[in-house]
Write a structure and sequence with these properties.
Strand order of the largest sheet: 1-3-2-4-5-6-7
Strand content: 15-25%
Shape: globular
Number of helices: 11
Bound molecules: D-malate
Largest sheet: 7 strands, mixed
Helix content: 40-55%
């Protein structure tokens, strides 16, 4: 099937090796805000909003992780970047894994933050479809109120997440839930990745258990896991210093220091 990529809204900071930071579901580029001052002297930070989220166009036809990865490579083309480090948070990690598979020649290194390579179990898939139905009937408040306590135990982070999630459209949330339910198992191509891979996990993550991080790292050629104590599903907001340090190690591994 032909992939109809679009131009994403993007924010850039700093200079150096390009590092694309892809947000998770149902969020936008603002989640990375706390780590910008910590990393902008080490890398050129590129923060897109995935299609439908933040300021990016609401073009939701054929929404899939593969299509979102095509949008990211189009962004690199637009910015004249041949190769980049790609870091994805949670659903952004599913996009980053599709990117690694489809565009290995454009990849300098990969970071998966609170993410996984596994596809959904039948139960998880079913739960997503139920969530999509509830969001359609009750509106965005259903997840804006319900999700933040599952993402972080920290009240100030929950408050910010509530604000960000409230900006999402019902249509984007439904499209993204369905696309996550339909995504492929990425474990098969992990051994083919030739660049350094970093996987970061919050030890208190309620959505994606820390074991998923260790199991994916076992399958890559060159990679390592970083566990962040007292962080849940949003380590870049809960422990920005530690996430920036870990990403700094990836920059060194990919680019030298
Ligand atoms: C995310 O944070 O991007 C999603 O919650 C991931 C998922 O539901 O699998």
């Amino acid at each position: 099937m032909e992939l109809k990529s679009i131009d994403l809204a993007v924010e850039e900071h700093g200079e150096g090796i390009p590092l694309v930071l892809i947000h998770g579901f149902p969020l936008n580029r603002q989640i990375w805000q706390p780590i910008i001052p910590l990393l902008e002297k080490k890398a050129r930070l590129i923060l897109p909003d995935l299609r439908g989220f933040g300021d990016s166009p609401q073009e939701l036809e054929d929404y899939s992780m593969r299509l979102l990865a095509a949008d990211v490579v189009r962004l690199l083309d637009r910015l004249n970047i041949e190769k980049a480090l790609i870091a994805g948070h949670s659903m952004g990690g599913y996009v980053a894994l599709e990117f690694a598979h489809a565009y290995p020649h454009r990849l300098k290194g990969l970071a998966l933050v609170a993410s996984q390579a596994d596809e959904d179990t039948p139960e998880r898939r079913q739960a997503r479809l139920i969530t999509a139905r509830e969001v359609r009937s009750r509106g965005i408040r259903y997840i804006a109120d319900g999700m933040p306590p599952k993402l972080s135990a920290k009240p100030e982070v929950q408050k910010e997440l509530h604000r960000i999630i409230s900006t999402c459209s019902v249509q984007t949330v439904v499209a993204a839930l369905k696309a996550m339910a339909d995504r492929r198992d990425a474990n098969a191509w992990l051994p083919e990745i030739q660049v350094p891979v970093l996987a970061i996990a919050g030890t208190e993550d309620q959505l994606i258990p820390v074991e998923k991080t260790h199991s994916l790292i076992k399958l890559v050629n060159k990679g390592w896991a970083v566990e962040i104590a007292d962080a849940g599903h949003m380590p870049m907001m809960e422990a920005p210093q530690k996430v920036a340090e870990a990403l700094g190690q990836l920059i060194c591994a990919a680019n030298g220091c």
